[in-house]
Design goal:
mainly alpha, about 45% helix
Length: about 80
């Protein structure tokens, strides 16, 4: 079993071994494998920007109200 850190392969026998309270070896879960797989395909920069794009969907009225709070307009 080989794990990857960045583009470098790390043999499993060099990784610290995790054990449960009963002393049984813990194997990586499917969620851990998925995170490792996604992490090796996408950079943290790409993941962050994808999440920000999904989180920052604002309609025009809300954006206008926020801009007024940041830069108050003087009455004409």
């Amino acid at each position: 079993l080989t794990h990857y850190q960045g583009n470098t392969a790390i043999p499993a026998d060099l990784l610290p071994h995790r054990t449960s309270a009963e002393g049984k070896a813990l194997l990586p879960t499917n969620a851990t494998k998925a995170v490792v797989a996604v992490g090796s395909v996408f950079s943290p920069f790409q993941v962050t920007h994808y999440l920000l794009d999904k989180a920052l969907i604002i309609d025009e009225d809300t954006l206008y109200e926020l801009s007024l709070k940041l830069e108050p307009r003087l009455p004409a």
